[in-house]
Structure formats: C-alpha cells, structure tokens
Automatic annotation (TrEMBL):
Residues 79-104 are annotated as: Disordered. InterPro entries: Ig-like_fold, Ig_E-set, SoxZ, SoxZ_dom. This is Thiosulfate oxidation carrier complex protein SoxZ. Transmembrane segments: none annotated. The gene is soxZ. Coiled coil: none annotated. It holds the Pfam family SoxZ. Residues 8-101 form the Sulphur oxidation protein SoxZ domain. Residues 80-104 have a biased composition (Basic and acidic residues). Gene3D superfamilies: Immunoglobulins.
Amino acid sequence: MAARPMRIRAVQKDDVTEVKALMSHIMETGQRKDSEGNLVPAHFIAVLEAKCNDKTVMSAQWGPAVSRDPFLSFKFKGGNKGDKVTISWKDNKGESRTDTAEIR
C-alpha cells in the first residue's frame, strides 16, 4: 500500500519552519460499497507524527474522515536549515511509512 514516498517540503524563514507533505494513501472510510454491494473495509491513517532532529514537533490522530492522498501543512519554531524533518504514519491495518526531508 505505502509504495510511493511522501512528498515533503520544509522551508525555514524568520525562525519558523513551514512543512508541507503530500501522502499517498487510499483513506477508505469503510462505508462505501463495491460493485457487488459489499462494504469496502475501512483503511485509513490513524496516527501521524512529525519530528525535527528526533524531537516531536507535531502529532495527530486521524480517522476515516480525512480525504484520499492527504495533504498536511504545519509550522513550528526551532528548526534550522540543514536539519532533518521526518514524518511517520501508521494506519488502522498496521501498515506504516516514514520519509525524511531536509530543511531548506
């Protein structure tokens, strides 16, 4: 499922780092029916965490209401150019993905 890497951009300006990430995930609600009328099982990102140099700067608990291929944007203080920002997620089926970007 998590074959495509996240597209992460982290830019530091005036002591504030802005992070934007595009994730590839089906984010199935569990309420949709397939062509035969059977419910498609829920499959969504449940836990998300962003770290800068191993320090958590953002965490979230998501559910089935988040759209397919979610986009995430947030800002934090304390990052410097060249530092690494790592975003990790785990879904309700146990699959996970972690990707890293350097602050520019």
